[in-house]
Amino acid sequence: MDELDVMILRVLSEAGEPIGSTRISELLRERFGVEYSTRAIRYRLNRLEERGLVERVRRGGRYVGARITRKGERMLRLATSYERSSMYISIIEEMAYKCTFDPEKGEGKVVCNVSVVHRDHLDDFIEAVVETYRAGLSPSPLISVEEEPPAPDIPVREDEVAVLTVCSVTIDGVLLNHGIPVNPVCGGLLYFEDHEPVGFQEYIKYEGSTVDPLHVFVAKRMTSVEDILDEGTGLLPANVRYVPWAAADEVDRIKSELERADMHGIIDAPRVEGEVLGIPLPPRSLGIAACGGLVPVALLEERGITTRTYPTRVLRDYRSLQDARRY
Fold first, then answer.
1. Collapsing DSSP states into helix, strand and coil, what is residue 217?
2. Which neighbouring-strand residues pair with 279?
3. 251: pLDDT strictly greater than 50
4. What 8-state DSSP symbol labels residue 129?
5. pLDDT confidence of residue 43
6. Quick one: CA dihedral 193, 199, 202, 206, positive or negative?
7. Per-residue confidence (pLDDT) for residue 86, from 0 to 100
8. Nearest of 214, 223, 209, 246 to residue 88 by alpha carbon
9. How big is the CA angle at 175 (ends 169 and 178), to the nearest 5 degrees?
10. Domains along the chain with CATH numbers
11. Which of 5, 66, 138, 148 is close enough to 1 for a disulfide, judged by CB 3.0 to 4.6 Å?
């Protein structure tokens, strides 16, 4: 079973009653932040039914939906027991380790999010990247527009393109490459007032989460990036990590190097030992908050433009990326 099969089984298990492909598609978006057509869901249900993992339910001769079978429940338990051993934090740590970007030299591989968007909305996507970056709300203006699938499990139809944006995990990778231990903490909604960060209103810790928390907040349209752009007040997708307090001066130096390389993701916040923007941290630690790489996607969602987004997904050479301001 692949990831989509597991997600379908999970929503069927949680539903507790037969549900149709339209409702399954809605729940996948609400629960996991992924977008699949009802046609794709019906195809998967047929495959799962052939394997005895789901069954179609009819009442009075009318089809009312699908439900998970006992065999499906057993397979789901097996799949999620493995999933629990590979939480989202392990993906962050792996991609940060693989990141080789050197901001001083302007070379190496950066971590990227992937968003698949209809070709008609490519200009809207690029505009969102530029708009949020110029306002200091997203990590970088650098993108890659690709017509071929950027990874084997990311489909891109003929009427779509994949847009790769810089993921804030790149910051973690750069810190690691400078010998600074990095501990990812959480992703959440950072409240801004008068264009200044005040504190996190909602957040989900990476420990125990199998999905990117920011992806969940964005998919549920809980952000208000447009309001920050217009009025300076709203909720921004952002994340937190901490490093040793003793590394503070080195962090400042690296932040300057990143900014010279068009990486402005680190948020200026009051420096308090063991806390950052309301998120409690261990003693003798320095919290670092960063704009989420999904901020442009959040803005698009707020404007009614849907994407299929895969966070923290691929690596790309820094020099292969294009500046959206000059695209």
1. helix
2. 276
3. yes
4. H
5. 93
6. positive
7. 53
8. 209
9. 145
10. 3-84 (1.10.10.10), 92-326 (3.30.70.1360)
11. 5
Token pair of 209 as six digits:
């989460």
Number of H helices, E strands in the chain: 11, 13
Read off the pLDDT band of 154 (50, 70, 90). Answer: confident
pLDDT given for residue 123 in this prediction: 97
User: pTM of the predicted model, to two decimals?
Assistant: 0.74
What gap in Å lies between CA 283 and CA 145, rounded to an integer?
43
Residue owning tokens 């959040």: 298
**Three-state helix/strand/coil letters over 274-312:** CEECCEECCCCEEEEEEECCCHHHHHHHHCCCCCEEEEE
> 73 Cβ partners below 8 Å, 6+ apart?
13
Distance CA(48)–CA(4), nearest Å, equals 11
User: What's the chain's length in residues?
Assistant: 327
Residue 314, Cα to own-chain centre: how many angstroms? 12
**pLDDT given for residue 142 in this prediction:** 97
Cα dihedral value 287, 288, 291, 293, nearest 10: -110
Range list of β-strands (E), 194-233: 196-205
**Alpha-carbon distance 97 to 30, whole Å?**
31
- What's the average model confidence in pLDDT over 28-47? 89
DSSP 61-123: TEEEEEEE-HHHHHHHHHHHHHHHTS-HHHHHHHHHHH---BTTTTBSEEEEEEEEEEGGGHH
Question: Could you read off the pLDDT of 129-152 as tens digits, one per residue?
Answer: 999 999 999 999 999 999 999 988
Tell me the C-alpha distance between 167 and 226, whole Å. Answer: 20
| pLDDT tens figures, 278-305 | 999 999 999 999 999 999 999 999 999 9
Residue partners of 289: CB distance under 8 A and separation at least 6: 190, 197, 238, 239, 240, 266, 267, 269, 276, 277, 279
Sole residue written with tokens 């987004």: 309
